[in-house]
Amino acid sequence: MNQVVLVGRLCQDPEVVSTEKENQRSVITLAVNRPFKNSDGIYETDFIRCILWNNIALNTFEYCHTGDVIGIKGRLQTRNYEDENKNKKFIMEVIAEKVTFLSSNNKNLEKEEKE
Questions:
Q1: For position 110, what pLDDT does the model report?
Q2: Which of 12, 22, 57, 70 meets the CB 3.0–4.6 Å disulfide criterion with 52?
Q3: Which residues contact 70 (CB under 8 A, 6 or more apart)?
Q4: Domain range 4-114, CATH architecture
Q5: What number of other Cβ atoms are within 10 A of residue 74's Cβ?
């Protein structure tokens, strides 16, 4: 079974692009803290590339911003490509099947809710 569950912070505002087949796609990076300290007593962070499609991409684009905490349920996918120097590169990414908005870092939204 190939299933991944992540909780982390968005590293940048999501952007949506249209593909050739009229699908909507967003590529985000999720900063996920490790649950243990390293030998220096510091929690390290992994930066994980995630691909969102269609409604998931559009909803995340509309409601989430840099620093927001989100949960992603999906699957791992690997692929390879050649760079401009003809070197073969391998990449692993999470294909999101569900995104949960957990907390917002948006100060304007918090201000509007109080008014």
A1: 45
A2: 57
A3: 7, 8, 9, 10, 30, 60, 64, 99, 100, 101, 102
A4: Beta Barrel (2.40)
A5: 21
